[in-house]
Amino acid sequence: MRLVDDFRNTELAKGLVDSIRRSSTKHVRLMEFCGGHTVAIMKHGIRQLLPPTIEMLSGPGCPVCVTDNSDLDKAIALARLPEVTLTSFGDMLKVPGSRSSLQKARAEGADVRIVYSTLDALDIAKQNPSRRVVFLGVGFETTAPTVAASILQAEREGIGNYHVLSMHKLCPPVIKAILDSGEIRVSGLICPGHVSAIVGSGAWDFIARDYGIPCIVSGFEPLDILQTVQMLVTQLESGESRVEIAYRRGVSAEGNRRALEIMYQVFEPCPARWRGMGMVPASGLALRPAYARFDAEAAFQFDPGPTIEPQGCICGEVLRAVKTPRDCRLFRTVCTPANPVGPCMVSSEGSCAAHYLYGAADD
Question: What are the angstrom distances between the C-alpha of 316 and each of 137, 232, 269?
Answer without folding.
Answer: 21, 27, 23
